């Protein structure tokens, strides 16, 4: 898998165009207006509001960029007609390990987000929108607040926007360090001033969301794409990409690559293109082979450096159906062959155990149990039956975890996500784990570690 | 009274921004923490009055969120990521170095945090919620020292702490 065997594949920039063109002022109102901000919103205001969702967004094939990849127009269409008020929430909680695109979009192109929110709100008839922004994003908060203020001053927010009769306010709500608040119903709880614990569905937020009113929740990148769909027309947008994965997506590439960072590429290029193309990841810095990589953020199951996996296209349905992994939040973490996969699985398990909200027993207890067992294996204290133990705990949280689509015994998908690492070890690194369990140096009593 | 007059005015604005007052618990807790450096019991009582719930409900909500510090935590909150990208690029070594170095320094609160959405430039940390990236243990320590000497300041969105 040397660089020479790969076709160079570059970026296709829409959502990231402004921040690349104007590196020094893309986030200011002047910089944004000079590169066409709010033209799409102006155009949208001349169009029939409903047609934007039902025709343009539907034709674009746009699917959510937050994780689940649900078609955006379909989500909007679930709103009951004639029920007001209705709310729109931009999900900027971005806590999925190795995902860093939404922070970039908020910090460096907040006006594009405001414009996307305005277009979505106009289309669905919402007059109060919220941005749920991850609490740690201090710079992003400052820039987004300024952008909202400036958009107000220029008549793009507030009452009777651009003389259209449409009113819209946007409030920014900062989270406070809980990954689970990115899950849409936990987010709504948090926005209502509660502990961020997911709700049982149905009812879905489109029917009874924020304050039990119809609510649409969309990811920051999803909303930031809307101005481009309005400008180019939905059908034209759908020409980009592959199959039902239309358009471009921003992939957050990190770990063992020469050029880590956010790359906006057309869907349909391969993982090999993304990781090895000189214009994108550029291959591993050490020149060593890729041992495995985690597509789609920490919640996804893993893929390995095999040709079969590297040559898979970035197509949401293809990777789901073929390998049971997801493109999720668009993050790809790459590990060369010096990395111990058990250590990575342990750190992920620790993350999920820490972030479990505690509402469901299988997730609360199971995630912690998986973490402890992976800890002892990765720290040389493994026992022979540990892999089977892990798998049985995992199977209790997420029955059928090796065969996608698996089911869940929990309220939200965080439970199954906590099992992704175990399932991946089971599929690809079984021998390695068994060997580690067999030869672990047992210098201290195992129980001392387990109850640490 | 905990909120100073400016922040009290801001607090009332924040409450008015939401269709239901209880929604303002998180932003008011941020505001109180900005002002005092941590979330004091008095602040939680005042927030309860402002949003018309019991102090226990405010505590119930706030205790869920790791950014709210319910004990004094020093002037500088240093948050070091050790999640799976930082893990293989040196995050844990930075954490260990800073924990040792500032073990007896009451001004510096070193904490291990989950992915900060800065993995493209890993390993990463925040000091009072300002990002610092491409780190190694010595560089990270030099940055913390620059905050201590006033060379660097944070914007203070969540810490009037700077
Ligand atoms: C545990 C968990 C964490 C999530 N975190 C985020 C997040 O940080 N940002 C996000 O946009 N979506 C996140 N999601 C997905 C949201 O629930 C939701 O599907 C998404 O925001 C919808 O927007 P979209 O349709 O535009 O993708 C998360 C889901 C789960 C289960
Ligand atoms: S699966 Fe885990 S995070 Fe999700 S609701 Fe249940 S306990 Fe909470
Ligand atoms: S893993 Fe450390 S910033 Fe993402």
Structure description:
- The complex is a heterodimer of chains A (452) and B (162).
- With 452 residues, chain A is α/β, with parallel strands linked by helices.
- Chain A folds into three domains: 37-238, Rossmann fold; 252-336, Roll (Ubiquitin-like (UB roll)); 341-450, NADH-ubiquinone oxidoreductase 51kDa subunit, iron-sulphur binding domain (de novo design (two linked rop proteins)).
- Chain A is built from 21 helices and eleven strands.
- The longest helix of chain A is centred in the C-terminal third of the chain and has 18 residues, at 361-378.
- The two termini of chain A are 42 Å apart.
- Chain B has two domains: 5-62, NADH-quinone oxidoreductase subunit E (Arc Repressor Mutant, subunit A), CATH 1.10.10; 76-149, 3-Layer(aba) Sandwich (Glutaredoxin), CATH 3.40.30.
- In chain B, 46% of the residues lie in helices and 11% in strands.
- The longest helix of chain B is centred in the first third of the chain and has 13 residues, at 5-17.
- At the A-B interface, helix 8, strand 3, strand 7, strand 11 and helix 15 of A face helix 2, helix 4 and helix 5 of B.
- Flavin mononucleotide (FMN) is lined by residues 64-68, 70, 91, 93-96, 180, 182-184, 217-219, 222, 412-414 of chain A.
């Amino acid at each position: 898998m040397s660089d020479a065997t790969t076709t160079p594949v570059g970026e296709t920039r829409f959502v990231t165009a402004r921040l690349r063109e104007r590196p020094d002022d893309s986030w200011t109102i002047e910089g944004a207006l000079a590169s066409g901000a709010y033209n799409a919103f102006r155009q949208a205001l001349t169009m029939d509001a409903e047609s934007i969702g039902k025709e343009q967004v539907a034709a674009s094939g746009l699917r959510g960029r937050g994780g689940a990849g649900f078609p955006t127009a379909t989500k909007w269409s679930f709103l009951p007609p004639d029920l007001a008020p209705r709310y729109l929430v931009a999900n900027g909680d971005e806590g999925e390990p190795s995902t860093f695109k939404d922070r970039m979009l908020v910090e460096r192109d907040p006006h594009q987000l405001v414009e996307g929110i305005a277009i979505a709100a106009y289309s669905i008839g919402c007059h109060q929108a919220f941005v749920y922004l991850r609490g740690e994003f201090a710079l992003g908060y400052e820039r987004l607040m300024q952008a909202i203020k400036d958009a107000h001053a220029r008549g793009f927010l507030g009452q009777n926007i651009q003389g259209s009769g449409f009113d819209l306010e946007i409030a920014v709500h900062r989270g406070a360090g809980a990954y689970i608040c990115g899950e849409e119903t936990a987010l709504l709880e948090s926005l209502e001033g509660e502990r961020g614990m997911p709700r049982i569905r149905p009812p879905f937020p489109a029917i009874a969301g924020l304050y039990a009113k119809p609510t649409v929740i969309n990811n920051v990148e999803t909303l930031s794409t809307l101005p481009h769909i309005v400008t180019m027309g939905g059908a034209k947008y759908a020409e980009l990409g592959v199959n039902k994965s239309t358009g471009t997506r921003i992939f957050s590439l990190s770990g063992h690559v020469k050029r880590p960072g956010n790359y906006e590429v057309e869907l349909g290029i391969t993982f090999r293109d993304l990781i090895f193309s000189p214009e994108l990841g550029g291959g591993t810095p050490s020149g060593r082979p890729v041992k495995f990589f985690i597509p789609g953020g920490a919640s996804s199951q893993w893929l390995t450096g095999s040709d079969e996996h590297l040559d898979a296209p970035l197509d949401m349905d293809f990777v789901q159906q073929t390998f049971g992994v997801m493109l999720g939040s668009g993050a790809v973490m790459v590990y060369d062959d010096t990395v111990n996969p058990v250590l990575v699985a342990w750190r992920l398990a620790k993350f999920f155990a820490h972030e479990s909200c505690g509402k469901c027993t299988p997730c609360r207890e199971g995630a912690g149990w998986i973490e402890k067992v992976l800890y002892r294996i990765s720290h040389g204290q493994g026992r022979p039956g540990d892999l089977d133990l892990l798998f049985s705990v995992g199977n209790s949280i997420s029955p059928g975890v090796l065969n996608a689509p698996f089911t869940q015994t929990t309220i939200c998908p965080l439970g199954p996500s906590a099992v992704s690492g175990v399932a991946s070890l089971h599929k690809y690194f079984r021998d390695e784990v068994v060997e580690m369990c067999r030869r672990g140096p047992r210098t201290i009593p195992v129980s001392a570690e387990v109850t640490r | 009274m905990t909120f100073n007059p400016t922040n009290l005015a801001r607090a009332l604005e924040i409450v008015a921004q939401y269709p239901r007052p209880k929604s303002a618990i998180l932003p008011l807790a941020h505001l109180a923490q900005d002002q005092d450096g941590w979330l004091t019991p008095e602040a939680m009582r005042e927030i309860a009055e402002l949003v018309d719930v019991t102090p226990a409900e405010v505590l119930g909500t706030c205790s869920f969120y790791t950014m709210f510090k319910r004990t004094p935590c020093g002037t500088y909150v240093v948050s070091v990521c050790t999640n799976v990208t930082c893990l293989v690029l040196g995050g844990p070594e930075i954490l260990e170095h800073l924990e040792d170095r500032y073990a007896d320094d009451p001004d510096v609160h070193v904490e291990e945090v989950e992915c900060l959405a800065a993995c493209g430039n890993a390993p990463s940390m925040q000091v009072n919620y300002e990002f610092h990236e491409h780190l190694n243990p010595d560089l990270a320590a030099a940055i913390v020292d620059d905050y201590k000497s006033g060379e660097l300041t944070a914007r203070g969105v969540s810490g009037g702490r700077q």
